Amino acid sequence: GTHLARVVALHIKCPPGVLQDLELAAIFVSDAQYNRNICFEASPAVVRLYLLYNHWVAKVLLYLFILVNLSLAFFEEPAVVALPTWATMLVELLCLLVFTLRLVHYARVIPRDKFWKDPKNICIIVILLLTLVDMMVYGALTASGCKAVRWSRVLRPLLLVNVTEGRQLRRAFRSIRNALPQIFYVFLLFIFSLLIFSLMALKLLGKRDLKTLEGEPYFTNYLSIVFDLYVLVTTANSPDVMMPAYNFSFVFAIFFIVYILVNTYIFMSVFLAVVYNTYKKHLKEEVRQLVRAKRQKMSRAFLVLQEQAQEGGEPVVTQASWNQLVRMVRPDISDPHRLLLWSVLDSSSQGKAAFVQLADLLNIEVITLKSRPHPLQSLCPALYQSAPSRLLRRLVQHRAFVVLYDLIILVNAVFIGLDEDNPLIAHSEWVFLALYLLEILLKLYVFEPRAFFSRHSFWNWFDTIIVVSALVATVVNSALQSSGGYTSRQILDIVFILRVLRLIRVVDSIKRFRTIINTLIRIGPAILTFGQLIIVVYYVFAVVGMELFKDKVRFFEADSSDPAKAYCGNALLRGTAFAHFNYCKNNFNNIVSSFVLLVELTVVNQEEMDGGLVNAMETMDNELGSGPSDGAGPAPPHLMFKIASKRYRTVDALLQRMFESDLDPEDLDESSDPEAQSSPSFSNPSFSSA
Amino acid sequence: GTHLARVVALHIKCPPGVLQDLELAAIFVSDAQYNRNICFEASPAVVRLYLLYNHWVAKVLLYLFILVNLSLAFFEEPAVVALPTWATMLVELLCLLVFTLRLVHYARVIPRDKFWKDPKNICIIVILLLTLVDMMVYGALTASGCKAVRWSRVLRPLLLVNVTEGRQLRRAFRSIRNALPQIFYVFLLFIFSLLIFSLMALKLLGKRDLKTLEGEPYFTNYLSIVFDLYVLVTTANSPDVMMPAYNFSFVFAIFFIVYILVNTYIFMSVFLAVVYNTYKKHLKEEVRQLVRAKRQKMSRAFLVLQEQAQEGGEPVVTQASWNQLVRMVRPDISDPHRLLLWSVLDSSSQGKAAFVQLADLLNIEVITLKSRPHPLQSLCPALYQSAPSRLLRRLVQHRAFVVLYDLIILVNAVFIGLDEDNPLIAHSEWVFLALYLLEILLKLYVFEPRAFFSRHSFWNWFDTIIVVSALVATVVNSALQSSGGYTSRQILDIVFILRVLRLIRVVDSIKRFRTIINTLIRIGPAILTFGQLIIVVYYVFAVVGMELFKDKVRFFEADSSDPAKAYCGNALLRGTAFAHFNYCKNNFNNIVSSFVLLVELTVVNQEEMDGGLVNAMETMDNELGSGPSDGAGPAPPHLMFKIASKRYRTVDALLQRMFESDLDPEDLDESSDPEAQSSPSFSNPSFSSA
């Protein structure tokens, strides 16, 4: 096409090719919608490869193999379930092959020089090569009977960061890295304050011949004072560390109070404030770049599709090509929904400014509320519209119906708490199950089933799955019990868990609670990114810990009579608090124990973790009061739309929304100067700007 | 005056009187500058009383008597230093008299109906009456030999909240109270989650016959599970509470990890986010009202002073009356400084919009940098300008001089750390003192003394005070030592503290550190408000605790041979961890122990305290990079001004600055409609809107 040549010429690195205008525009819009920043050549062959690369099946497969690769730690030495080395090696080789293929695919899509300039590609290549080398060395060494260490396992979680789809994760790591210099200065000042306070403690308390509870000299050694006061910041040894001095004179309590005030409250708050501010600042900058790149892509799509409406007028995109475009980008959007989108855009103007909003509009989840008739009404309208049926439907839709079932849930909670060995209690379970099943059936009778089980009816799905699973598990349990008198503990556990989970439903009845839960669900994706980050860090530490400490501490079953049980199989632990408190299972003997241990360590030192969430939840409060939906205005009368404004299809959209009020209008400008379009901010801003 | 009649007529409640226009305008400006919201009658007598009421001596006296009243707890039963009851009663009566006089003074200033409508006045009256009644009842009961409780002592800290000057404190309490409903819902949801998890734990673990470390049944009682899991949220019993289940099977570790994730991380973060957001929202609303009231007062001052420049033109305030006004409001401002202020205002326009800014401009601390010649130059210019003198001055001003003294401080730190019984070390102290004294003298030789000891040179003052005190203390100590061979431990402690404090000076040399410290100093007033709030809460708890628990736990000196020492004098504590860890001094036996104990309890449960500071420090980060001063443009060439933009004269100014970007321009409008000027937001917005 004629526009295409222009567009491609702008995009300097990508040589022109022959391609349908519309197809190219659709790709640009889709890239803008999902904030993909991959520079591809505009030739038909490459575009086909590019579409394949972005296909959801390819992505799911990639993540599946990353998961398989990570979970190899369960089966490798030290293993939870031991598998022969050749088996895990074979699976790992398969994973490496898949990663290589994915990388080659990526290399075919983007221009060669871009590929080699991108640090994340280099990272993946290095990881793959190192893993191969390590596997060969390990194989050779173990074959010759030497001791070998599979050190490349530390690199596995890094793949999660460096794949194209790990954008959120890279952003999180980058924001943390950017906050480090600021934190470093506060940390230095904190250390300085710690040293000064320790020196003062040494001078004031060291010469007074005080004794600790264990009868050792108190505060006489500078380094041990520094350590004690450092631990005091985490409040772990408060008030024990100050008791000898306080018992001597209450004046010294002032010293410790001032210390805690300065170092625990003020410094920790400054830490939190600095982390929060720099993290937020850098995130804002990233979102700004993201929005700019999005606008650029949308302008490009506009350039492809634009037509001159009248001589000298602004170029526009006609409704016909707009419809075709949206149909290509989102085939699942219904005709009326598309009409709605067009009318939203049309209300301003048909020009570029309106067109550019399309990517954001597509990210707003619009639920089409079709007032479809109930299938029973079509099947036997006479029965469905009869007076008893109408009364029943009114009853079910009444507020009292909800209250009645909340009461049933409460009674159920009491029954669960009572002893289930009582036959009356045991049989009551069947009554409750029947009541819950009846509720679902009644609701299905009243509400249109497809609306009841729509994608956004979280609680309906939750109810149905829990009740049906509980029914199945209870039936299986009873069958086992009555047949052989044998009760499977696992099935019983599942039954119990399902019973208790059913009680959660009561939350949905109270509007305030629903709002809080919805907010938590809404920020779920952001928390998931954080979870990935935690997994990457934990995995690295767990693998290193396993290599260093495996079998240093051993756990003995409760019925074991081994004398080593008293000191966890390690003579060094004889008589320590660790062995006394029976902490033997807190070890690095396999990946599961390592993860549990790392979680325990995190929990004890949990000071600094809350800052990130505050950020993500800043908008929560403003929305706690308002209703969950806003009706959209100009829609054909036979249809109702509901903007699911609380949910965001992507984390990027959530972030953009969060910083909307903070971004200047100039930042959102797509730098309409054509020369500026190949600015460095566009080409893979995720890592190349690092 | 003619304008006055208009102004007073607007101010409906205050009847007109005869008064100098300028005087009234000056009061309005001063009220706006300090955000005072006291409605006074505009008669000369009342205005005189009003000025007296706002005089700093009156305020200092008031706070002094509040302090005396609060510190009576040191001398009353249970006392730190016991005084006879009649003495403390007499002092308390004196305090009550002062508070009554202050209240009567206030009642004379503001209109009668306003006085009785203001809850804070009612509060003070009720507190005073209750205290009197309590004193009489207590006196009568003790005289007749009955046991009596001085319950009105709980009310004492409430005076701090209810005096006119406790505006910040009332605001903080109000913001907390406003955040409560939101927090309540999150708390309910948290409790619900706790109950559900406990029920699940009971069902999953109760029947497995597990034992705790002490051999007791594990997780079999629902209420004790709820308690254990509640404590787990504070991570105080982690990982002990999960070890029996984890030892049984690693699957149960997942239960505890999910629990900690949901209740410690997610719920505590939601708590923090909700507290932060609602606190911020309400504070913003308060600041908005504050700014609106300020603009109203400035408009009123403008109405008093305005003159018609030309027919049909905008009314203006002439430079002459403006000068007189500023001279009345701030007599300490120099002529060039006033000229600077005028030129800043003049640059926009002479109208109302510019005039209204005056209150904010007066709150900006401008340091006048007068390039005064050094007194030695005037005394003996030949010597001061000689070549050696010039060289010396260049040396002292050189960067190397600072580095040299930083090195000396570091060496000093090492010497302090070493054993001071060594005579070499003991004598080195004199060398270091001499070096520090030399430094101050050299600096005084180079820099103009009045500039060196200006009000904003925090570190110069710090240095001089520390070094001179250390010199005095060391001399006294040596004199005592050499005269009688007797060393006072107290003086030695002071010497040590001063020596260590001297080391802090090194912080000032590193720019990054200086910025952080300056930020902390800047938000100091906001932290002080928080400190007052803490004292109010602690005092109430301490007094209640003393009445309930005094002498329940007793502390025995280390050399005591009383057998009760092993269980803190309370048989109930025999064999408990409390007695074992020697916590006997953690009791409610007097006000000091009570405060220390409350601090300890706060430190152990310190989860939720950091939120407020983040808020106050939000702007800190942006300023970490920029230089500490900005030169102001249009000033006469012989003078330099430095805007001390980092410091705020009042907490209100800091708050206004914090929310500047958040406030809409409409919010800052002083509602120029004259009818709206007596809106409810003006008349004592601090408490009457409650």
How many structurally independent domains of chain A? 4
Oligomeric state: homodimer
- Regions with little confidence, pLDDT below 50 for 5+ residues of chain A: 1-18, 605-639, 667-690
Trace the largest sheet of chain A across and list its strands. Answer: 3-5-4
Largest sheet of chain A: 3 strands, antiparallel
Kindly state the number of beta strands of chain A.
5
The rounded Rg of chain A comes to 32 Å
| Strand content bin of chain A | under 5%
Shape of chain A: globular
Protein structure class of chain A: mainly alpha
N-to-C CA distance of chain A: 37 Å
Q: What share of residues of chain A is helical?
A: 55-70%
Mean pLDDT of chain A: 78
Task: Specify which chain pair forms the largest interface.
Answer: A-B, 84 and 84 residues
Structure annotation, total helices of chain A: 31
Compact summary:
With 690 residues, chain A is mainly alpha-helical. Chain A has helices at 2-10, 21-33, 44-53, 56-71, 85-109, 112-117, 119-143, 156-162, 167-205, 222-233, 243-248, 251-305, 319-329, 335-346, 352-356, 358-363, 375-379, 381-384, 387-397, 399-417, 423-446, 449-452, 458-484, 489-503, 511-522, 524-549, 577-580, 591-604, 611-616, 620-624, 651-658; strands at residues 307-308, 315-316, 366-369, 630-631, 640-643. The first copy, chain A, folds into 4 domains: 39-163; 174-359 and 660-690, no CATH class; 380-509, Four Helix Bundle (Hemerythrin (Met), subunit A) (Up-down Bundle); 524-623, no CATH class.
